[in-house]
Amino acid sequence: MSIKSHLSEVEQKLTISISGRFDFSAHQEFRNAYESLPVAPSQFVVDLDGANYLDSSALGMLLLLRDHAGGNSADIEIVNCSPDVKKILTISNFEQLFTIR
Amino acid sequence: MLESRALTVLIADDTDSDRLILEAIVKKEGHQVISVDNGIKAVAAYQEHHPDLVLLDALMPVMDGFEAARQIKVLAGEDLVPVIFLTSLADTDSLVKCLEAGGDDFLSKPYSRVILKAKIKAFSRMREMHQMVQLQRDQIAQHNSHLMREQEVAKQIFDKIAHTGSMNAPNVRYSLSPLAIFNGDVIVAAVRPSGSMMVLLGDFTGHGLPAAIGSMPLSSIFYGMVGKGYSMVDILREINQKLKQILPVGVFCCATIVDMNFSKRKIKIWNGGLPDCYIHRLDSGAVDTVRSTHLPLGVLNDANFKDDCEQVEMNPGDRLYLWSDGIIESRNKHGEMFGEERLKQLFENNAQADTVFERILDAVHEYSDGQRDDDLSLIELTMADPGQLPDTRQEYTTSRYGGLQEWSMTLELKTSTLKLFDPLPLLLNILVEVPGLRSHSGTLYTLLAELYSNALEHGVLRLPSSWKTTSEGFERYYQERQKRMDALSAGFIRFDMEHQTQGAGGVLTIRVTDSGDGFEHVKNINNGHRLEAYSGRGIALIRSLSHSLRYLGNGNQVEVTFVWDADD
């Protein structure tokens, strides 16, 4: 598992890329990626291109990010999901809370 | 150098002085000379010495030069032995006669040394060239016969791999060129343990050995996996991945693969790059087409490969036609293609469904005037009642049926193991030994992972999920998880798994027991959770992905069933 993040200066858009297994062990790193920023980003992208697996605790972590980003007014996109990962997000009705592409 | 090579030159002249002059000239050029004074001796000398060049006087006693030339040319067979007539005759008729007798040139008396020298050189070059052409022709012929022998042997090997299946079932008719593997076409068919029949028609790009080579792994994967009951999607993926791995870029395999389910009277079909398949309806005579909606096999890597299939109902007597592009693209002598229109007409103009197969072959044969028959690959598959087909599965069930079928197992993880070992890969590896479960490995992994983390966190480590209601609590939960895990001194998690076959599929039961205190599952079980809640999602996931979930005992035991059907 590895997490990389990138903040674009112009749009204030934070992209968090996760590869490998996205489960509870990613918790600390995932949180660091969005909490320790000098400016609050206005837009978030979670790139799951490299993530081959996601468990229920990862779902919890995505919700924590959503809260941090403003709850119902949060602008978060989850992109590049593998079919397995997408299935889990769909079963959990996450498309109602996030933009999943 | 060619010019300086010493030749053997036969000179036949009955005039001693002429002969001596010639001998002198030729010898001076460094060639060997054999001299005779009439035609019979010339022929005999030719047989004995096989000279490179013959100089013949036209008019000689006993046998003249014309007759000698004829005999020498016959003896020489396909070797080129230049014959130059020496003649004092100057009239056109005589010179023509020289050439008609097989002479290659003539030299008029008196001899010009310069011209003779030039002619010897010229004919020596010509002879040299002729020998090279002969040699190359022989080499080509030899290589060709060698290649044909190799192809025959390769075909025998290929036949043993490719034709072990159900090609001879009564509902299958096919036409494939005798040396088809060297035009890159392949047909394989086999009956799955569930009784459905799988057929694949493939057409590799290119011709010859590179095209043929890919059909070997294709056939062996196909027969191996069909016999073991793997799903069509698994087989497709495996073949695609193997071909992608071994074939050079630019070589790939256009293919159609069909799973024909006789009891449900439907087919599952995937077409990647082959022409539209036709389904000819028995009752209405209508033709439905199945288009290619995918890239050929061996192009995309596994991650990008699309395995979605089309399902089509077929009634008994309905016929499915698969073909390579050789039929549509076969050309008449004006270079025009047979085309789809002509093919379609064969179905429309014919009420007799059972003669369409022959009609197609005859029509294409007639159209192309028998020119390109070896590019035609055609299969006709008829939907039949299960009872009408001989049961060819027996050979698989006894000798080839691999993989787990009905089984149960228990794995109990004790304290020291819990701390260090992730049991999920091990358990998943066992589950996918059931061929039909392999395509569900993603779902099974999620089931196992959620069951395991619940048992570990809430059971063994007694972590309350109520902590996870705030961001800080979430943090605390996972810090505490690590802490309690490190300090763990007692606890276990037991997996009891059982698999039963059921119809064309099976039922997997996973029961997970932990050393925890359990919980009041009767009260909690129907408490829905809010969508935005940080916890409680694992159970919901399990419920959605499995057939059933229930808690047993005091809640420290959970049982999940997963039902699968090979036909889905």
UniProtKB/TrEMBL annotation, chain A:
Q: What is this protein called?
A: STAS domain-containing protein
- Which PROSITE patterns does this chain map to? STAS (PS50801)
- Residue ranges occupied by any STAS domain in the UniProt entry: 3-101
Q: Which organism encodes this protein?
A: Pseudomaricurvus hydrocarbonicus
- What CDD domains does the record point to? STAS_anti-anti-sigma_factors
Q: Name one Pfam family in it.
A: STAS_2
State the InterPro entries in the record: MlaB-like_STAS, STAS_dom, STAS_dom_sf
**Superkingdom of this protein's organism:** Bacteria
This entry's Gene Ontology molecular function terms read:
anti-sigma factor antagonist activity
TrEMBL record, chain B:
User: What are the protein's GO molecular function terms?
Assistant: phosphatase activity
The UniProt keyword set, sorted, is: Hydrolase, Phosphoprotein
Q: Which residues form the Response regulatory domain?
A: 8-124
The domain of life is Bacteria
Please name the SMART domains in this protein's record.
PP2C_SIG (SM00331), REC (SM00448)
* Phosphoprotein among keywords: yes
Task: List the SUPFAM superfamilies hit by this protein, alphabetically.
Answer: CheY-like, PP2C-like
Quote the Gene3D superfamilies the UniProt record gives. 3.40.50.2300, Histidine kinase-like ATPase, C-terminal domain, PPM-type phosphatase domain
CDD domains found in the cross-reference section = HATPase_RsbW-like
Where does the record place the modification 4-aspartylphosphate? 57
Q: Which PROSITE patterns does the entry link to?
A: RESPONSE_REGULATORY (PS50110)
Q: What InterPro entries does the record point to?
A: Bact_Sigma-Reg (IPR052016), CheY-like_superfamily (IPR011006), HATPase_C_sf (IPR036890), HATPase_dom (IPR003594), PPM-type-like_dom_sf (IPR036457), PPM-type_phosphatase-like_dom (IPR001932), Sig_transdc_resp-reg_receiver (IPR001789)
Q: Can you cite a GO biological process for this protein? A: phosphorelay signal transduction system
The protein in question is named: Fused response regulator/phosphatase
- Which organism is this entry from? Pseudomaricurvus hydrocarbonicus
